[in-house]
Amino acid sequence: MQRDSFSASPAPIQASKTLNRIGQGRHFLQIPGPTNVPDRVLRAIDYPTIDHRGPEFQRLGLKILEAIKPVFGTVQPVIIYPGSGTGAWEAALVNTLSAGDTVLMVETGQFASLWKKLAEKLGLKPEFITGNWRRGVDAQQIEDRLRQDPHHTIKAVCVVHNETSTGVTSDIAAVRRAIDAARHPALLMVDTISSMGSVEFKHDEWGVDVTIAGSQKGLMLPPGISFNAVSDKAIAASKTATLPKAYWAWEEIIAANKNGFWPSTPATNILYGLAEALDMLFEEGLPNVYARHKRHAEATRRAVRAWGLEILCENPAEYSPVLTAVVMPKKADGSYYNADDFRKQILEHYNMSLGMGLAKLQGWVFRIGHLGDFNDLTLLGTLGGVEMGLARCGIPHQKGGVQAAIDYLAN
Amino acid sequence: MQRDSFSASPAPIQASKTLNRIGQGRHFLQIPGPTNVPDRVLRAIDYPTIDHRGPEFQRLGLKILEAIKPVFGTVQPVIIYPGSGTGAWEAALVNTLSAGDTVLMVETGQFASLWKKLAEKLGLKPEFITGNWRRGVDAQQIEDRLRQDPHHTIKAVCVVHNETSTGVTSDIAAVRRAIDAARHPALLMVDTISSMGSVEFKHDEWGVDVTIAGSQKGLMLPPGISFNAVSDKAIAASKTATLPKAYWAWEEIIAANKNGFWPSTPATNILYGLAEALDMLFEEGLPNVYARHKRHAEATRRAVRAWGLEILCENPAEYSPVLTAVVMPKKADGSYYNADDFRKQILEHYNMSLGMGLAKLQGWVFRIGHLGDFNDLTLLGTLGGVEMGLARCGIPHQKGGVQAAIDYLAN
Amino acid sequence: MQRDSFSASPAPIQASKTLNRIGQGRHFLQIPGPTNVPDRVLRAIDYPTIDHRGPEFQRLGLKILEAIKPVFGTVQPVIIYPGSGTGAWEAALVNTLSAGDTVLMVETGQFASLWKKLAEKLGLKPEFITGNWRRGVDAQQIEDRLRQDPHHTIKAVCVVHNETSTGVTSDIAAVRRAIDAARHPALLMVDTISSMGSVEFKHDEWGVDVTIAGSQKGLMLPPGISFNAVSDKAIAASKTATLPKAYWAWEEIIAANKNGFWPSTPATNILYGLAEALDMLFEEGLPNVYARHKRHAEATRRAVRAWGLEILCENPAEYSPVLTAVVMPKKADGSYYNADDFRKQILEHYNMSLGMGLAKLQGWVFRIGHLGDFNDLTLLGTLGGVEMGLARCGIPHQKGGVQAAIDYLAN
Amino acid sequence: MQRDSFSASPAPIQASKTLNRIGQGRHFLQIPGPTNVPDRVLRAIDYPTIDHRGPEFQRLGLKILEAIKPVFGTVQPVIIYPGSGTGAWEAALVNTLSAGDTVLMVETGQFASLWKKLAEKLGLKPEFITGNWRRGVDAQQIEDRLRQDPHHTIKAVCVVHNETSTGVTSDIAAVRRAIDAARHPALLMVDTISSMGSVEFKHDEWGVDVTIAGSQKGLMLPPGISFNAVSDKAIAASKTATLPKAYWAWEEIIAANKNGFWPSTPATNILYGLAEALDMLFEEGLPNVYARHKRHAEATRRAVRAWGLEILCENPAEYSPVLTAVVMPKKADGSYYNADDFRKQILEHYNMSLGMGLAKLQGWVFRIGHLGDFNDLTLLGTLGGVEMGLARCGIPHQKGGVQAAIDYLAN
Fold it and tell me: Which 3 state secondary structure label does DSSP give C405?
């Protein structure tokens, strides 16, 4: 059959042409996720789509569902959804809670705030421990609050492991100890969207009930799938919780997963990528992966300090291994040099994407992602781009940030 | 950095090895979706992931959101979710309805039944017009029922355009006329998961309020994204509906889409594929695409009849252009030759996946998908595989099915 | 750096757009090579190019050079060139012969004729045993000729294992026996360009001195690399032969290959593909690969006979397992229906490429390739396209060719 | 058909596993070619192989053959071979020369020496103007020599535009002026293997007769195809030259190219890549491409000087825009720190390949490639890897090389 043209057709999109407008050479995707997807994973996801009810897919499904567990530090089921991290947030809540339930959340930054907003939309009553967006969770505050909840009105404690908006981590084991110290039955739910696969996480050992994760950060995949790891206690809660749930309902998925299948159509090709990414993580060795992220984070902070800029995170014990949020210097008039203009210059002149300051950080904070498929030289290119951007935009700084990173990394 | 091995690591998955166990040559993926993904689309989805908040992605987003509209036959917004078709079903309901609302659904087959079950899980009250799984929607029944609903208890009429489990289509324009004839304000929601991009659909002209679609059928993409096209009336309903909604909520998405963005992270790489698939559909011309599917369906039915087998769909006016469900012949003892054994033999010997009979059709019905990226020769290979399978399994049939298809196609 | 436009630039080529003008669905590439390249091989060749002097490439090189040997049936070196099959013909001659040397060649068809022409261009004196292009090599003729060469003027006997232009194979073991019977020291050179990887070949056992092969046929790769397998006797000849040789010279390549390297830059990415193709051949098992080609060839011939058309190859013992050349029927006026018009219609209407009749076969012969990455259903699609083309072009034939193939294959 | 295992099969190669042994993150391929192949080109080369005699390929061929010309600075034919740069050297000589012809060559480094050796193997008599491998061609020496050749024994002058072994360029226009000043009819042949696409070149304006190029450097392709651009005078010479030629013969190729075809099978998939690479070069604009390479070369030299290391090229006017060869510092005992140990450490610890010192430069020179698909940040990563390597290996140097590059690039 010859192709006819269709008079009412829109102009061709030509995706590769539409996308390739800026710069030459490889793009540096240094937002804190999506991260640079490894070539091996990209090749895996373009393998032809197959029957998701057939024996070949079944073999793959069974292997993936088993291999994903050590990354989460669990022997429990890990549920995989076609969906974004936001979807996995929703899944955690609708499976375990009922309309009007109180949940204790902690304002570590924009993502904690968005999760709280989502809880409200779902008809829950989040109680928000406020924060200054420069520190992680204070486990003592949680313990104190839970001790004042003798009737166990609070059904869940929800915290973010790594706040993508601020570059601040929280001590999840300490939160578990706090809950236990208060002898409170609340579920512990942890958002690991930007830490999973990059920062050590122990779902079982730390007594987490629901771990929420996404594909596009440390797991080195394109966005499109997200995760819930669940404890027995969470599963038990899901049997009685009454928020409406269907797409996100764990029960049917866990049952079908036993045979390597999913009840509704899984995102076949992203799962191919997940298989490859898991192979890569285990080839490198998870402890090496975690150490690598810490090392690159330290190198980044040394660069930031050498430039004379301020790291947003106030507490060194809570520095994020996966991103560093940086405060722009101030002008004589007390206003900040504009972070978004700065990022725009860097994108246009150096073909690098940096993360913007979100919500109340907008305009005066930028974020450097140093996670995922990444190595020393990519980091030096990244930091070099920041230092050149500072110079190009006339932003007051000391030279030598890249040098400081080199000095640290070379040892 | 050298890669260490990690003692507790699982065995490597080796996706390409895990997947490649059956047969040589190209697999024939003739289930009624996921369909054979064109090479151009596969190459598009493995283009490196980029910043979903940057100007390059914005350009792509704006183009996609505009080009998708003519496929749905609408000038209204088309919402794209990371998620499966099941998710898009849920999205349609939670955006527009409130707990306890009555919805009128029609039992055209397994997918209509699953949608009804999903509605129940969400706390709705579906009223189910029963059916024999061999016919489409009877618009008169809908009209009759709505006329008996003077207080407008029924909030929505939900029908499936193309029943993937049976190969039967329904006349959507007739359903709209029925609703109008009954002067009933119920929303009209249509599942086009297996018809969109293959069968003509006119969201605006037919007065559909929510059109639900998926990526992995006529749109020729891997599974992973799904769609809601919405009318003004549906959007209005979403302002007052009270089912909890967050991830699926249209409002924020429509607002962000105006600038080419999404509120939560979109499935970047599948969207690359969508851009390419849309280009392909318009290059061929939508009328040509629809005509091609009809022609392949007719050729398939001629083969089925030549074999002396029965087509599940009873009403020729409702034959599906995208798949044909076939009834297995009976043995002397009155039982059916087993459809699943038959499919298994075909998979193992001829490297082709056929669709199974679902639910009450299991074991005695199989389905031939002839949709998506497909041409005359692929169809002949497909039908040849079925005819060889019949011979190999000793299933009584007349030879000459492929010949009948050739005779039809060659003219 | 922003991209400027350059006033004198040519219009963009847009390869994927330029290539995608004909038809929808997957193209059927049924010329007798290049063949359909498997998805696994295509993915392998787009892996990033690496340092061809580094340890990673070395590992790959050593493995490939070892694994290729069983396909050629040799334990001797197999030399791999960036180049086409024509280059490998030249390599065989310039390494072993001197200006003015007589070589005995056999006119089995167009490729034998081209090889002869190439020998002339290089300053050799080919003696050509003529043929009717419908039969393979007559070993007795070779023996007779060699017996009449008491002074061993003839330095080499050059034959084509599978004549790609005619679909006729030759018995190489018989040629060796003929040479030995004549007690003649001539080298035996065999063109296996369209047989290697599809038809059993035993370089060592059959006493072949130089085996010439290419990548784009049974080895399932894109064109771009070609091969010489060599005997000790051939290597010895290369030490004294005086035709100028540099690029093609075996010596340096064999030496460098010992360490997994090449003296000049190898075609890295095609070699990635070769590694994958070798894995695929051994996964299927070489005996299975050879049996598969024979079975598909027989099915094709049954179809041709059912159509009432004539197979070009006159001798059933010499039927090619990889392609079938078919004679067009004649019109009332004694002229042939035009084969090229026929192929053009099939390309435009059924998205399939068939091989043209070459040289004196042009216009009245077409060729069906059934080699490489291929299976039963692809064959049925292929034959279906031929049968539909016959009908569409009004070429007299009996129906039932595809049916004959089905009947054969299903048993 | 089920896959059987074949008892005598070699172990699977598993190319992607075999290749992925070193490091994580993207490899930095900073040898002076093969260069980093852009993602767009890699995707292009894995598009399915098609019929090289069909209309789709013809369209592509015609476009490529036209678009390649401005890169060579010519309106004459550019011949494309499946083959390496070495093959294109051979092609230039065998097309235009006869056995025993004298050619004047200039010892600019290892590649000039290899070309001379190749000329000898082909039976030519190269006369070699010796050099110290740290300077380019001295046009005056050529002029002087040609003036002493009144009988025009010298048939060709062969020079290397960019010596890949030394990082030294030569002034081709000056060589042409020298030949003209001597009123000598010798052909001018120029090796642009490592400059084409990166350094401005004007085949026509500079009066070059044969320009030799390869795919794997500035043209950003994998290795596998190479080029001869030819003048009318060269074509005229090819009519009478008597070195045996067949595979490399221009005549047939030029004739077939007029219709977009090639006489023997072209390297289809690499040509897809060439189409994409040409689009990319023109999108950036050739003047921008050339300026970019110069700028990165200057930044690299500033880094080298800041480290206190010596640039091999002695003459600033001849600095290469595509690579910089660097001399290792000496130890107290007068011996050099070992360049190969240094490169090995960098490969293992920083996942970067640097070029080795070739032939007499081995062990005391290393080479940094800064050509092809490359940008400022990739350069900073590259230089950072060198600086870290110097530190890690305890090689005496000043810190601040990367800083010097940043200071230069940021302005």
Answer: helix
Is the model's pLDDT at C3 over the cut of 90?
Answer: no
3 state SS of D163: strand
Is pLDDT at D114 greater than 50 in this prediction?
yes
DSSP secondary structure code for residue C193 in this structure: T
Residue D17 has pLDDT above 90, yes or no: no
Q: Spell out which residues of chain B touch residue C378, defining contact as CB-CB under 8 Å.
A: 25-26, 381
Facing residue for B23 by CB, picked from C375, C381, C399: C375
Please tell me whether residue C103 adopts helix, strand or coil conformation: strand
Between B and C, how many residue pairs show a Cβ–Cβ distance under 8 A? 138
Residues of chain A in contact with residue C13, where contact means CB-CB under 8 angstroms, are: none
Using an 8 Å CB-CB cutoff, list residues of chain C that contact chain A: 1-3, 14, 16-17, 21-24, 39, 43, 46-48, 348-349, 351
Count of CB pairs separated by less than 8 Å, C with D: 337
Phi, psi at B343, each rounded to 5°: -65, -40
Closest residue in chain D to residue C50, using alpha carbons only? D29
Quote the Cα angle for C281-B345-B350, to 5°.
40
**Does D34 sit behind a cis peptide bond, omega within 30 degrees of 0 on the bond before it?**
yes
* Residue C20 pLDDT grade (very low, low, confident, very high; cuts 50, 70, 90): low
Q: Yes or no: say if C253 and C262 are a contact pair by the CB < 8 Å rule.
A: yes
Chain A interface mutation, best of B50, B79, B247, B366, highest count of A Cβ atoms under 10 Å: B247
Looking at residue C6, what is its pLDDT?
38
Task: Return mean pLDDT, chain A.
Answer: 95
- pLDDT at residue B22 greater than cutoff 80: no
Q: Which of D1, D39, D47 sits opposite B39 (nearest CB)?
A: D47
Between D2, D43, D348, which is nearest B2 by CB? D348
- State chain B's mean pLDDT as an integer: 95
Q: Give the pLDDT confidence of B74-113 residue by residue, as tens digits.
A: 999 999 999 999 999 999 999 999 999 999 999 999 999 9
- Reference D267, options C371, C193, C267, C164; nearest CA is C267
Q: Under a CB-based contact definition with an 8 Å cutoff, are residues C28 and C383 in contact? A: no
Residues 6+ apart with CB under 8 A from B410: C387, C388, C391, C392
- Residues in contact with C332: Cβ distance below 8 Å, sequence separation at least 6, in sequence order: none
A6 band by pLDDT with thresholds 50, 70 and 90: very low
pLDDT tens, residue by residue, C190-245: 999 999 999 999 999 999 999 999 999 999 999 999 999 999 999 999 999 999 99
Based on DSSP, count helices (H) and strands (E) in chain D, helices before strands.
14, 14
C129, C162 contact by CB (below 8 A):
no
Quick one: average pLDDT of C322-337? 98
Is this structure's pTM higher than 0.90? yes
Average pLDDT over residues A288-305: 98
Q: Which token pair is A127? A: 């109680």
Most B-contacting residue of A2, A3, A13 (CB-CB within 10 A), to test interface: A13
Burial of C231: CB neighbours in 10 Å, binned 0-12, 13-18, 19+: buried
Q: Is D159 helix (H, G, I), strand (E, B) or coil?
A: strand
Nearest CA in chain B to C40: B16
- Taking the CA atoms of residue A126, residue A129, residue A134 and residue A140 in that order, the dihedral angle to the nearest 10 degrees is -130
Which candidate, C316, C332, C323, places its Cα nearest to that of C300? Answer: C323
Residues of B in contact with C379 (CB under 8 A): 381
Tell me how close the Cα of C183 comes to any Cα of chain D, in angstroms.
31
Of D36, D40, D406, the CB nearest to A384: D406
